[in-house]
Design goal:
single chain; 273 residues; alpha/beta; 7-stranded mixed sheet; 11 helices
């Protein structure tokens, strides 16, 4: 792809700027986007979905990789002509104008697929929850978030960042931060640093019904995180629910590990019978 103009030249040629309302911050350094793709792979010919490709910095690196079909989901129609310039006509690159929160990923790809994205900041967390709790689960996810969100995904019990997002994400996936990026790496620079999180679904992940109960329990527990579980979970059974799960009812949510929350979710099912 060395015959293509630089990303900055392409943006200038199309008169495009990032839209604040879409939470857009562009990665224009191809050395950085290539590194992200290396961290996401190998793809071994599997399809890759990229959400919010914008000017196509990550897209160019994906096209250079061992990915099979590269499917772009872009909500901002301004970028469609620019992305079309990356299409070599072989059918390997597919661009879908859609809202990623509403799209049906299973209809976009045939067989197992990866998700690799520099996610728009304002939809990063809802998209992650959609992918890890919904009916369609990728082979792996390599996603750019605000650093604070990335830390919340990988946090351990007792850490300040530990909360509902960590419990749900880690119940479904092995998650780790694989790269940090300063604000200066982006155009325009955001007010915060960013980080790339790599998530691989666990073979022993809970089924969707259990995940729903896990969402219910964690919403209640972390919604009042300073309270003891006997109080924060009162509407769900309080101390008796905790005791059925083998969890200390006098503990706070922030010290309960993922296994403890899964036991609470299973006890909630038993209580509902």
């Amino acid at each position: 792809m060395t015959d293509l103009p630089s990303l900055r030249e392409t943006l200038d040629a199309h008169g495009l700027l990032a839209k604040k309302s879409f939470g857009q911050h562009f990665l224009l350094d191809l050395n950085v986007t290539r590194k992200i793709v290396r961290l996401a792979g190998p793809f071994e010919g599997r399809s890759v979905i990229e959400v919010g490709p914008g000017p196509g910095g990550l897209t160019r690196a994906l096209i250079e990789s061992d990915a099979g079909q590269v499917v772009l989901v872009e909500k901002d129609p301004r970028f469609l002509p620019l992305l079309a310039e990356l299409d070599d006509g072989t059918g390997r690159l597919v661009t879908v104008e859609a809202d990623a929160l509403k799209v049906d990923e299973a209809s976009l790809v045939a067989g197992p697929a990866h998700v690799v994205s520099n996610l728009p900041y304002n939809v990063g967390t809802p998209l992650l929850i959609k992918w890890i709790t919904g009916p369609w689960l990728p082979v792996a996810l390599t996603l750019m978030f605000q650093k604070e969100v990335a830390e919340r995904i990988v946090a351990a019990p007792g850490e300040d960042a530990y909360g509902r997002l960590a419990v749900i994400a880690q119940a479904v996936c092995e998650a780790r931060i694989v790269m940090h990026l300063p604000a200066a790496a982006f155009t325009p620079p955001p007010k915060v640093a960013s980080a790339v999180v790599h998530l691989i679904p666990r073979p022993d992940r809970p089924d969707r019904a259990t995940l729903k109960r896990l969402e219910t329990v964690t919403a209640a527990a972390f919604g009042q995180r300073r309270k003891m579980l006997r109080s924060s979970l009162k509407q769900l059974g309080g101390a008796s629910l905790c005791e059925a799960a083998g969890v200390n009812p006098d503990a706070r949510a922030e010290v309960i590990d993922g296994a403890g929350f899964l036991r609470l979710a299973n006890a909630l099912k038993a209580n509902a019978r």
